[in-house]
Amino acid sequence: MAFTIDIDTGGTFTDGFVSGPGVARAVKTPTTPHDLTECFLACITAGAGAVGLSVEAFLEQTDVVRFASTVGTNALIERNGAKIGLILSEGGRALAPLEAEGKPGIVSPEMAIEIGAGLSPSQVLDRAQALIDAGAQCLVVALDGSETDPARERAVRQVIKAEYPRDFLGSIPVFLSSDITVRSGYGERINSAVVSAYSHSRLARLLYKAEQELRARRYRGPFLIGHNDGAVARVAKTRAISTYNSGPAAGLVGARAIGRLYGENDVISADMGGTSFDIGLVSDGQLNVALRPGIEGYRTNVPMNEVEALGAGGGSIAAVVDGVLVVGPRSAGAMPGPACFGLGGSEPTVTDCNLVLGRIDPDNFLGGARRLDAGKAREAVRQHLAEPLGISLEEAALSVVNQVDSSVGAAIAALRRTAKSDPLLTVYGGAGPLHACRVAEMAGLSRIAITPFSAVFSAFSSSLMDVGHGYMCAVEAEGGTPGLRERVAGLVAGMQATALRDMRGEGFDPDSLSWHLNAILRRKDGSEAQVSVEVADPLAAAALATLHEAIAARVPDAAQFATVGLFASAPVPHFSFAERSLGAPAADAAQTGRRAVICGPGPAAEVPVFDLEQLCPGHALTGPALLESDKTTIWVAPGWQARIDRFANLLLTKG
User: What domains appear along the chain, each with residue ranges and CATH number?
Assistant: First the structure.
């Protein structure tokens, strides 16, 4: 049997998705922040157990392993990345992410130098040597104007590498901003290069170690790393900045796939994990892209799938500040976790509040894999919330949940207003389905789709991703510039030659490749827009004509052609949806009992509880109800209907 394995490390849990002919299994293991290799291997072991094989036999029968890691994000949050030496143009220090009083940064002020255009090679080397002597573990060269002419940056690197060639043990990595991005915006280009270099060595150690562990266990297929553009690539073809937020960004790929099942072009994704609630939009069948995304507070100019992270996860801490209830953005994380985990956490979290409301079974959390301490949850809510607010325990817990639902619902409503049609809401993450109905109501949405793999949706979405490489060239020309089309055609030809070389290195035949041409346009008001079109042959005249027609239709007010890009992708084995026959609508056989649940203001109500794994295509029920599995709990709120459709997805509709 040929398996695929997809793993996504989150702040609290590491999710795995295993698929093969007639097989689809989801697994979850606790994230081990001290060493992400541990939870990676634990997830592999859990996947092997789910299909009844030893780890070695499982990996021998696996065609591809895809992995999304949080190392880059963690390095920035924890400020434990590489010590960077930064070489800038004159005036560049004012734009760099330097540490200063009252201003966080990731480069020490003494580790940033400016160089003028007239310096000799020996003078450049002297300045670089001073940074190395001060403890720089890598050097970043970011010179103004290098997005269109990288020659000076390359000359600086050549001077340094002549003194520290790659084969010396003391060789120091040198990163060029022009290798990371060719987009305008000097400060953003500095940030992009620094952010990528900051976690480079830490990420490389993790990924190469993970791959070595796989090889030691008889895996012989490709090890592919999730990128935030919705594709995967080998470790050797992965830049650190491409992995930031790659797990949540993968969720958009899955949301688009769910939308396509139902003929929906507009889909909103909502992912609630232990640390955050991430939302994104698929608009007109296209993944929304952030052209100048912020990465942990640093504005960059490397485009990536746009996902907004809200500080409202299951582990988000609730507190009373100056008499006002506040939820998040502080999180209990994996350790110590919510108070109910019994691992030392004493502050109330969203998970503790859901437990107090009866929406989580303390004896059946994650299928009984972890027993929750309801007493500790109640004590945390009482001490930190109910007593300071002067309200009952249940009122305090309900207030926390309502605040999360309201704030997330408002953020989703803002996304909804940018969609072309009334979007389908896809909710996932271990905690997301508990809040789905009320969040949808707050956003003015009435249709929700939840897959059987919602608790590991980012890993599931990764299973739909192909190998892909993106390339970009600066154009920076007015729309009617003479010779513009010929210049763009020449740039596309160069990018295609590079893409063919890279894809051959990945082991793909050129005939198997798919191509997308894209362009970033700048309007008269300074705002930007991206246009992307699929083409059969990027060098054909019809391909560029298609791109220009799309630009005229979608960005009619474009004033400047900022960049042209090419994206090449090649298929690798991935999961595919299978239709099933529908049975009778009665779901009584799946009911496991009833439980007292706080549905809203007032006393608890006896609510039916169903085993989600026993619900089959065709089954339907009306809320309020709880649907439980060993991965998640779904709260079907009053006024909502639920049914399992022919794809085994749960569809929730209001009214």
Answer: 3-76+204-243 (3.30.420.40), 83-136+138-172 (no CATH), 467-570 (3.30.1490.100), 588-654 (no CATH)
